[in-house]
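Researcher: Quick one. three chains, 994 residues in total.
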Amino acid sequence: MIVILLLLPFVAYPVLLMKALCFALFACAFNLLIGYVGLLSFGHALFLGSASYAAAHAAKVWGAPTELAILFGVAASSVLGLVVGALAIRRQGIYFAMITLALAQMAYFFYLQAPFTGGEDGIQAVPRGRMFGLLDLSETRTLYFVVLAIFILGFLLIYRTIHSPFGQVLKAVRENEARAISLGYKPDHYKLIVFVISAALSGLAGASKAIVFQLASLTDVYWSTSGEVILMTLLGGMGTIFGPVVGAFIIVILENYLAARLGAWVQVVEGFIFVLCVLTFRRGIVGELSRWLKRPL
Amino acid sequence: MTMIFGVPVQALLSQVLIGLINGAFYALLSLGLAIIFGLLNIVNFAHGALYTTGAFVAWYLLEYFHVPYWGALVISPLVVGLIGMAIERSMLKRLSGLDPLYGLLLTFGLALIIQGLFLNKFGSSGEPYEIPDALKGGTNLGFMFLPNYRAWVVIFSVIVCLATWYVTEKTRLGSYLRAATENPTLVQAFGINVPRLITVTYGLGVGLAALAGVMAAPIYRVNPLMGSDMIIVVFAVVVIGGMGSIMGSIVTGFGLGVIEGLTKVFYPVASNVVIFIIMAIVLLVKSQGLFGRAP
Amino acid sequence: MIRRVSSLLIVFLCLSGIARADFTDGVIKIGVLNDQSGLYADLSGQGSVVAAKMAIEDFGGKVDGTPVEVVFADHQNKPDVGSNIARQWLDVEKVDVIVDTPTSSVALAVSDVVRQKNKVFLVSGAATSDLTGKSCSPNTIHWTYDTWSLANGTGKYTVKAGGDTWFFLTADYAFGMALERDVTAVVKENGGKVLGSVKHPLNASDFSSFMLQAQASKAKIIGLANAGGDTINSIKAASEFGIVQGGQKLAGLLVFINDVHALGLKAAQGLTLTESFYWDRDDKTRAWSKRFADRHKGHMPSMVQAGVYSAVLHYLKAVQKLKSDGDGKAVVAKMKEIPTDDPIFGKGTVRADGRKIHPMYLYEVKKPAESKKPWDYYKLIHEIPANEAFRPLSSDCPLIKS
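Model:
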């Protein structure tokens, strides 16, 4: 995967690829929650968007260097993750989804009104700056490799989280929560930790996106973005490692290609993919591939 | 000019009226959602899109068939109800054994399709729909001006809500429904065709949404996004009221509408979020909702 | 050896041949970026594309042999969508100039992208006077109108006519706030007071609650700091709740002929508005508008669409004189150098801060009985001469300081 990603910017439009990378990271973070803990969060855009606003604000208004702006974004989304997680973890299944949706919507309305977000205008003209004071990010190629590095970092973090003793406990909790409790583990703690990690990495994706596009807008916190990330993960394969990456790339490229030619039909197509996947293709692309190859992906 | 809590009476009452109207729509929509959730255990994300469809059917009826508002009030829910039944038969049935989250995702996908189709045809501003002549104008009550159509909306919604409640709680059909929610296998053993009951129930639920759509058309304009703005708030209403409770949805719907209206007067900044704040509090204190049964 | 040298020579000759008229990749591409499906689609939308095509045809279809093409896209009134399209157009599809772009928040975002890529941005649709103020750019020209000129027209006139207490109903984004700000300044300057304001989301579906707040304020004038579909719905809500019967007046701070058409004269009569173009103003505008209407569903052009024609025409003149379209700053500088002349605005100039200068006109919407033919909607109150119509050069604009 890494080799392909390293070579891609020389053939394809780098800005589009960066968008795909940010969403891929977002989807992987989301997948951590649904695939390995079984919690469907319908408000994940909250973390993406909040970090986006935080990073944009730090970079533009406070003049913070780029890496610190991104870190600030991650910190913001982590704190939000803690708060939302603490409220939402108490519930399961449908209720969990509804709570996350409603809390995210609440945040949306708050951001709509708050002066620092610029409301409908968003935070515009966010400077790209220099990464670590060395790498000039206004050069698209340089920016691409920085974003790629960030993505790989996040991806590796997720990989290590899953393939670790911590990850084993998660699996136990997901398979048989009562048994895990009887063995002395506190599932709620584990769930909360995963929730915060998921929120933090979504924030990393959001903060990077703000730097790449130099804009933080309301679209990032709207529930349609939450829906998009679910679509990407579902299409790619929930619970697989590479699934969300594949799903994200497909959807971003599809959106870009179709939007120019079909306009609002994009939404219809996405709806169709949703319906089809839920009815007949629940394992997703990588999920089916994994089943066919008989090894975990 | 009289003041209550530092706010002129006129402003207060007119916002409460608007709150009641919004509340009427919340109640109608959450009623349909509660019925569907109660029986099918599915969170019908497509509810908002079907509400929009109800409004568009009314518009089509007027534009191409010259069927006025009153005809649309009857025909549109029937049409959308049939569409709903088709959806249930062809798609939702297949998910009956699975995790209810899949139902949520499927209906979400359906909502995207429906909304996307309307957006394509009509753009995001939609079309205007005239208030029916019989209900035009308003009465000047002295302390405020009451548009006739909006008064009608409130009164008719209350009637429909109470009628639905009566049917589900007091009639035989309603008792079959409630029994099937508790124990479908046993009810089937008694000879009642439960799958068909479920299909019809879904149709009923979305028919209510369509009715709300027709009533909303003259107020909010018939536009493709009207459903998605509503649906999230309606979800919150249903959660607060209790996911399966009919009376809970009705009372909560109207109540929250009024609370929203009052917030607009006293603390306008919070008016959009007050419903969600209440939802968060209710969930923390009494997770099954104000009127719900324990899960 | 000789073969190698001669083939190199041939290559160099070809290159220099191409370089004679140095138009990037041999085509001049004009991108019309606006709202194609939402609340501003009627006043811009496909009509602006038609206007751009008319300008190209009237210019002759080519610039010194280089063909001119038009592409268009829908920015859905969202800054992120608009700036992404702009970036992709300029990076990948080699668009040379972006025109129109209603919705000020999108225009500001696109202006930034265009400046970074050093292309040209001709704003006809958006209103915020910040485009020639603190957000001015050497790559952007603000063409048709702006919030300051609207305030100076409708705002000043309404206050002077006795409307000295105001309440604003404002679209909650860059445009609404700029318009409210500029009109507030005019109201205060002329001895009026602003009693309050309320913000509504863009493309709101229900204005009843906002209108009621306006009613409760008891202000003589309710200023509608919004546009397009939002203005239409505000006016409808006002009539539904008996606001005008109650004695308050509505001031449509930005009204287009399409809005009047959608409302009908019965609902819109008496509204005062400021526009820079009206199809029935003189013989030249009549002739041009008829040609436009024949190509655009029989609808008369809005000032935004007419402005696109004027801007594209002037762009092509500048590019021809410059013999190149690659350097955005240079093209804009040329456009500021040459005076403008077209059937839309007559003679005018482009100022150093990127502001296009031409007269503005104060109109009143006719009563139904006064209208003698289709689209006969306005009567002229007075003309604001070009040297008074726009804000004097502002030191907010960094271009002016240097």
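Residues 4-21 of chain C have pLDDT under 50 and may be disordered.
Researcher: Thanks, that's what I needed.
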